[in-house]
Amino acid sequence: MAEKFAAAGMSLFGYGALADLAPFLKRNTIKKVLIVTDASIRKLGLLKPVQTALMDGGAESVVFDGVMSNPTLENVSAGVKLMKDNECDGIVAVGGGSANDCAKAICILEANGGELRDYVGGNKAKEKGKYLIAVNTTAGTGSEVSRAFLISDEKEKRKLIFKDDYAMPDIAVNDVQLMMNLPASITAQTGMDALTHAIEGYISTGRFALTDLLAKDAIKLIYDNLELVVQEPHNKIAREKMSLGQYLAGLSFGSSGLGLVHAMAHQLGAEYHLAHGLCNAILLPVVMDYDLNYCPERFAEIARILDADKCIGKNSEECAFYAVELVDKLSEKVGTKVWLDDFGVKEEDLSHLAERALEDGCILTAPHIPEKEEIIKLFKKVMRS
Ligand SMILES: [Fe+2]
Predict the structure, then answer these.
(1) Contact 248/198 with Cβ under 8 angstroms?
(2) 177 contacts 166 by C-beta, under 8 angstroms
């Protein structure tokens, strides 16, 4: 079967890259856009530079800042209404994964009508929507270069998963200037999310040569810079390396798929409204420890990428365990090694969470699909009780 690789139509990189939006807006005569974001991005002062860049390109903007950390069907409907009421001819996501997911959903629903649930799954949309620009403010979810998006169905307490070629942003902007003031906790959580993307992309059964190359560089860049950027938020070079690492990770998993960490993390997000990056960070080491039984050589290679010198003289099995140890230590250093109980996760919910994880599309490319009881055990490993 052919290997299919997807990426945003164009990517803008570097400090001040936002300024390069203007020629695109002018060339495509985009006059009014819907900015999709959340209140914290506005509070951090990140909307102003985006609006300035839009104005330089001749585009007005209408702001929808109601995106929740796990965006909901209601968020999407509100965004579509605002877009139609204001006759917008483009959408600009400003934020991390939540803003991007919501913007992609608005783009698909505005163009295709009906209910968002109609488009669950792969390539269900018939029409490509309006121009979609993803301005990333975290490093990050890689969502700016992915066709996938997740929306929470609040009534069902379930994440709806979509993967549609028409949801791929036309432009992805990674301007480090917007990331310099990101709080340490968000930097740590989104960075661990990016590391999870790179590792799950690398061990995914959907991987191929190109996704491997991207994942390997992503693993190295993120591992080498995450702790530094948490300690030194204004370290421009480290921020740039994290931005590149998360971007490569996004390109990798966007075409190879993810795995068990995400399949489990999505359920915690849907049930308890926990931040996606934090859920992945908590689960990553224990799931790696489980997955390494099914692709030990891959994990040994991850250890060699992370710390080649210490792998000299170790056999593959020892290296594979060492990879888990290094990731676990990194999580501890950046403050994401915490217990699920502290966030309200209850033992009596685990059976239901495990069932939902088995229905999650991300599990399809995991190195091995576990039994329900095994998933429950993995959840228990990150609980005190
Ligand atoms: Fe993720």
Answers:
(1) yes
(2) no
Determine if the pTM surpasses 0.85: yes
Nearest by Cα to 323 from 236, 195, 227: 195
Task: Count the neighbouring beta carbons within 10 Å of the beta carbon of residue 240.
Answer: 20
Contact call for residues 22 and 51 (beta carbons, < 8 A): no
Report the separation in Å between the CA atom of 88 and the middle of ligand 1, taken as the mean of its atom positions: 29
Is 109 a residue whose pLDDT tops 80? Answer: yes
Say how many Å lie between the CA of residue 7 and the centre of ligand 1. Answer: 17
- E strand or H helix that includes residue 33: strand 32-36
Residue 370 DSSP label? P
Distance 262 CA to ligand 1 centre (A): 6
| Interval between CA 278 and ligand 1 midpoint (Å) | 10
Ligand 1 centroid to Cα of residue 87, in Å, is: 32
Model pLDDT for residues 194-227, shown as the tens digit of each residue: 999 999 999 999 999 999 999 999 999 999 999 9
346-351 CB contacts, 8 Å cutoff, 24+ apart:
347/380, 347/383, 347/385, 349/271, 350/376, 350/379, 350/380, 351/376
pLDDT at 181 over 90: no
| C-alpha to C-alpha distance for 176 and 136, rounded to whole angstroms | 9
d(CA 60, CA 333): 43
In angstroms, the CA 56 to CA 161 distance is: 36
Is 90 exceeded by the pLDDT of residue 140?
no
Token pair listed for 173: 């902007």
Distance 161 CA to ligand 1 centre (A): 12
Which strand (E) or helix (H) includes residue 366?
Answer: none
Q: Say yes or no to pLDDT of 307 above 70.
A: yes
Distance 185 CA to ligand 1 centre (A): 16
Cα 99 to Cα 37: distance, rounded to the nearest angstrom:
5
What local confidence, expressed as pLDDT, does residue 2 receive?
Answer: 81
Distance 102 CA to ligand 1 centre (A): 15
Residues 69-100, buried b or exposed e (16+ Cβ, 10 A)?
bbbbbebbebbbebbeeeebbbbbbbbbbbbb
Specify the residue for token string 């685990």.
350
